[in-house]
Structure formats: C-alpha cells, structure tokens
Amino acid sequence: MKLLYANDTAGTYPDSWYKATASDSNAKQYRQVTGAHSFDVCVIGGGFTGLSAALTLAEQGISVCVLEAHRVGWGASGRNGGQLGSGFNRHEALTKTYGIKASQQYWTFCERAKQYVLDLARKHNIDIQYVPGIVNALHRPYSVSKLTQELDEFNNTHPGAALQALDKAALQDHVRSEQYHAGIFEETSGHLHPLNLALGIAEAASKAGATLFENSPATKIERLLTSSERFKVHTHSAQVVCNTVVCAMNGYLDSLVKEARTDVIPINNFIVATEPLGEDIKNLLPSNAAIADSRFVVNYFRRSADDRLLFGGGENYGYRFPKHYPEIVQRAMTSVFPSLQNARIDYAWGGTLGITRSRWPSVKQWQPGLYSSSGYSGHGVALANFCGHAVGNAIAGNTEDFNALNQLKTGYIPGNDFIRPWLCAAAMGSSALLDRLPSFGKQS
After folding, report:
1. Smallest Cα–Cα separation from 163: which of 132, 194, 184?
2. What's this model's pTM, rounded to 2 decimal places?
3. In the predicted model, what is the mean pLDDT of residues 23-39?
4. If residue 304 lies in a helix (H) or strand (E), which one and from where to where?
C-alpha cells in the first residue's frame, strides 16, 4: 500500500479549513505530464521542499520540472499546524553531539529559515495571514527561576535567540488552561496559513520558469549509464530525462530512493477546526500566539483568522488513519479547554509527516546528481522551505548551507517496509505513555 493513496482521494485536497479558506479556492491547476521531456533538474514532490527548490533553480536560469502526485501543497505542506517556529526539534541535543559552535550555526540557520519564508511571502505577495508569537507550554511543574537561568544561558550563546520564560501568571496572557504551569515565549516565531504559502510559492516558481506537473506520480528513477543525462524519471504516462533528481517527498518517500528510507519514517497527525467561537477563543488565547505543549505527543493549537480554534493532537504510525481520529483530537482539545466540550467541529483532517531518529532533517546527496531532503520532524514550515532552497543552491553551485545540513547525523531506522512501522509504533507508543504518568518528568 502506498501512503500517497492510503487515506485520501487522488488529486483532491483534503477537506480541511485550509482548503475552505485558501486565497484562491479554485487554485491554479497544472497539467499532467505526458510523453518525453528533458530538463536539467527533475524535482519529485510539490510541497514546500520541492517548490522552494524549483523556485531557487528557476530564478538562476536552470531548467526544472516538478512532478507532484496529486496537487501542489497536497501533503503535509498544505495540512500542518502552520507554526513557523525556531530551531530544530531537539535542538538542545546539538550541543552535546557537535558542540556549542555547531549549535549556534544551526540555530542561525533556522532563524534564516523563518526569515526566508516571510521574505518569500512579502516578495511574491502571498496572503499567509501571519501572526507573530509562539508559546511552548510546559505541562509539568517547572521552576521558573531555573527556566529563566536556562534561557538566559541559551540566549547569550545563540545569536538571535530571544526566548522568554513565562511563569504561570504570565502564561495566562497567552493561554488560559489549568494544564500548563510555565512556558517559553518565542517572539520571533509565529503562525500562518500553510496552504496559501504552498500555492503562492508554486505560482512564483511557475512565473520564474519552472514547469509544474500535477497528478503525475513518479514511479521509478532509472540511472542512465550510456546517456549524456544521468537519470530517467518514469511516471505512468511520461519519462523525464535529467542530470539531477531532487526527491522532496518527506513522509511519502515510499521506495523510490531506498537509501533515504533508512533515514526517515512517516507518522500521521491530526487536526480539527471548531466552529467560529467569537469572544470565547479570544479569552482562551488572548495574545493570539500559537501554542505547542511539552508532551511527547504534542498538542498544538492557535486561533484562526475567523476565530476558530485549530487544534492538532494525536498520532499513529501505520499507513491508515484511524477512523475515529476526530474524536481523539477532540478529547485532547477538551482536556486542555473543558469549556469547549460542546463546541461544534466543522473540519477534521489528517496528514503524514516524516521524522528521523535524531529529529534533525535528512538532507543528502546519495549519489552524484541524486538528492533528497525530508524528515523535518514537526518543524517543516520553516525547514522544508529553506532546505529546499539549500538543495537548489547546491545544485546551482553554492553548497555552503547544503554541506552544513549534510553533516547532521539523523540515525539509522532498521527494518523493511513491513516491519519498520511496527518498530516505530512500539518505540513511539511507549514514549507517548509517559505523557499519562503524573510524576514522570516533574522538574522543580
């Protein structure tokens, strides 16, 4: 079973709040690829990574096409929580692994990634509905004096970091829930409309000269040994010969690049959108910052532009979404906000993202001309776009950012295509149980 078709209707965006409120509800459709084509670069995947890579290449005069199996922004890029956050997942572990200088370098990289997204939206007039501010809400008791000391040390050693400790009273200015005891405020982060962003980058790439194909799933990458081009990428109705292939499929890698499958594994996550809540949502989230909590299975939520609560939570590790996932998310939502017990759910959708063992992105060149970028582990709004930009620049000759990313150790994920989801479910499920133990992880 292919994840591309396990939970969705082919060629159709999921029935999300993002689809319902996209700036162009009849977003431009790009034709299906047929016949034989030749490009310098073939990008497989029309999400943030692939679209940003294509835009970067096209702006430098390199002929590039994008093969998207469904619609541009169809995958995680158009379904996620919309949080444009700081750093890598588990960024604090970088210091232990690589030292403080590397941690500083990668923090700066991530700050540049956020700015890159905002600059793209400004340059191309993309209506991303950006709102500044993200709060990391701690669901275990935590000494605020200790938290303040830790953040001061981090801010002093990481240029551009502006993380602020929040005690329980200060946290109430952002999120009013008895579940949280303290927090960390990121004033240089924020939240946005991800599908609008993806559609806007696609249009910008097309205008810059990239050729975009939809409903055009790649089925095989053939290495050419006797041709002036290195590769032939096959679809059901076409062949694209090219010198370079960029695999930008994140959680939907399947088996096109077997090497990359040992770095990244897919997991599924789910979001609901309530009915418009008016003053109630403004009372629950008074500052309009987005929230992500400290659970292993993270709850993340924010106000929408039309005063709904967009709430993400719950995950599973098989190919199929559970049938009752809206109820799973709604239970998590009402545990955080009991007053929303009777709030109507207007939209519910799921999506697939890619994670690595280290939670750092996998950005690799597996053989000459064959690149992949994936495994953003929940930080894809900033990282997918900027990693795609880094890959595009590397192909054009500027390898500095790509080389830095390529050095990250992502960790080997064992097993074949059948056993790996079970191994992941066992490992992730046991860790998720820790969220339910009242005393685990208590810090004072």
Report:
1. 184
2. 0.94
3. 88
4. none
Q: What are phi and psi of 138, to 5 degrees?
A: -95, 120
The CATH code of the domain at 31-82+195-264+357-435 is 3.50.50.60
* Cβ 360 vs Cβ 408: under 8 Å: yes
| CA dist 258 → 157, 263, 412 (Å) | 39, 10, 13
> CA–CA separation, 43 vs 369, rounded Å?
12
Are the C-beta atoms of residues 242 and 39 closer than 8 Å to each other? yes
Q: Which residues in 273-287 are b (16+ Cβ under 10 Å) and which e?
A: bbeebeebbeebbeb
Q: Measured between alpha carbons, how far is 301 from 315 in angstroms, rounded to an integer?
A: 15
Which pair of structure tokens corresponds to residue 223? 């290495």
Instruction: State the virtual CA torsion across 114, 120, 121, 126 in degrees, nearest 10.
Output: -140
What number is the average pLDDT over the span 66-71?
98
d(CA 22, CA 198) in angstroms, rounded, equals 10
Residue type (1 letter), 34: T
Span 128-172, pLDDT tens digits: 999 999 999 999 998 999 999 999 999 999 988 999 999 999 999
- The domain spans of the chain are 31-82+195-264+357-435
Q: How far apart are alpha carbons 152 and 150 in whole angstroms?
A: 5
Residues 6 or more apart whose Cβ sits within 8 Å of residue 231 = 42, 221, 222, 223, 224, 241, 242, 243, 244, 245, 369, 370
The maximal CA–CA distance of the chain, rounded, in angstroms, is 69
Of 49, 8, 417, the closest CA to residue 201 belongs to 49
Across the strands, what pairs with 244?
41
What region does 129 belong to: left with phi over 0, alpha with psi -120 to 50, or beta? left
What is the DSSP-derived secondary structure letter of residue 321?
Answer: P
Written as six digits, the tokens of 91 are 């960024």
Tokens 């930009």 label which residue? 389
| Pairing outcome for strands 265-274 and 220-223 | unpaired
Summarised one tens digit per residue, pLDDT across range 309-333 is 999 998 888 789 999 999 999 999 9
